[in-house]
Amino acid sequence: MNDYCICWEATGFLGTASELNTNTVMSPPEMLVVLLLLHCALGLQKLDLLYQWKGVDFVFPSQTTKEAMLRSGYYIQDNPIPLDVDVWNQDGEEKVFVTLPRFKPGTPATLTTISTKRNGDNMSPLLVPYPDWSWHREGVCDGITSVFRVQVDACGRLWVIDTGMVDILVKGRQICPHQILVFDIRTSKLVTRYRIPEEDLKSNSVLPTIAVDIRDTDGKCRDAFAYVADVTGFGLIVYDARHNRSWRVTSNYFYPYPISGYFDLNGETFDLMDGVLGLGMGPNKGDDTKLYFHSLASVRESWVLTSVLRNSSNFKDGLNVVPRKFHVSAEERSSQTAAIVVDENEVLFFNLLKSNTLDCWNTRKPYTKNNFVELDHDDDLLQFASGMKISKGKDGRWKLWALTCRFQKHMTGTINPREVNYRILSAPVDQLVRGTACEAKSSSLTSSGRPGGYRPIVFEQ
Fold first, then answer.
1. Could you confirm whether the keyword Mitochondrion appears in this record (predicted)?
2. What is the pTM of this model?
3. Looking at the structure, do residues 396 and 316 belong to the same domain, yes or no?
4. Rounded distance between C-alpha atoms, residue 32 and residue 10, angstroms
5. Which of 18, 49, 175, 261 suits a disulfide with 297, CB 3.0-4.6 Å?
């Protein structure tokens, strides 16, 4: 059934709002139509809640192993914090990846998939360490130490940025090198391990976000780059997979904005001067690609062409010789945002942290509040979306996935393990944006996928 047809026909049935008054007596059929209208207005564009947890549990090798980890403190049930989500679908098989950085002691696995096993609640599945438990032994640097975010690429590979840090919210110990890991998802085999050289890092570097740029046009997926945010070192690391090398990129726009370092989220207040965190890769349409980015302590959006980043000669000796090729929005959002994602139609999705909303921005239009569209608002479900991805579902439709984690409560020490704190939500992108300024209009696109007469007017130069 087409819900939007129902809304259109119902409008004609009842008349316009100005034609109705508070004394109108409605028949049962008219009342049904009103309920359908409310459904259209309030329910159609909502994200669907797929999974939720008060605290996460795992599929352990045995009950004996679980009990031993609990006794030793290697597993503390309330401490693991889900942060990011991504999804792989192929030939009817689906894997949902969930990351759990080792923010606190007692996080036994940092990269997992969702299992079919449940622990009481149907919506609270157990998590399975990926690729298996042997990769998650703390202090074993040939494994995986602490993962904030991942990305599934179009070639069926999982890209993992491992910070090598544990107890990040407590005292922060660097026990293994920062590294990029790439897995073949179909086989769960490691295909690449790249340890990031010290010269590309700062003494306080923390690497929470990775964005992947596949440049191949022949489908062999060998020409790939990864862009990694350094949230505390205020930089970006570029990894050239074909040549197995990396370099550091600097820009003033990677720094926190002091006025935006104060957070007031759902009654919790704290200061956090985090730099570049959110990365969103624009679609690769055969020409250049934009990387959108912002600091967590910021209310502006920035972008740079990836051709600038991929040219290492632009950033020799720690200098940026092309600073004017980095751009920042002239206008501001109403609050900070964390994760972002860009779809194939160049629409950027983001979560306004203060207002608990999912919003979108058509990047072909100026970055102004008038061009932001609120798609969903929920003061419970949408608290702090720390992970956001777009993946093609089993039905062939592109779907937006978001993981929300109430991170503000971890910052203030007020997390309540008796409440639901972690959620994974999803909805088809076309359903979310239908009828809004973010909906793709095929007639406005040229053959290159750019709107006719496009000019780079979105950001100040």
1. no
2. 0.87
3. yes
4. 10
5. 261
